[in-house]
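#structure-requests
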Amino acid sequence: LQNADGIALDAAAHSLKGSASNLGAKVVAALCARVMQQARKNDFATSTKLVAEIEEGFAKVKPLLLDELRR
């Protein structure tokens, strides 16, 4: 986002979407898909808001993921 590089943002969101999907974090994956759409339009204002939502979503699932790793 800092470099306003839609291609790089799309690629990063795509990678995170796959990881989130594999971990069962469906909300985070869906948000990543929305970032990918906005990145392809070079809509960085919307992408910035979505990234904040991704961070919030990850903060919610992080404790659950850490619990799974400890098992």
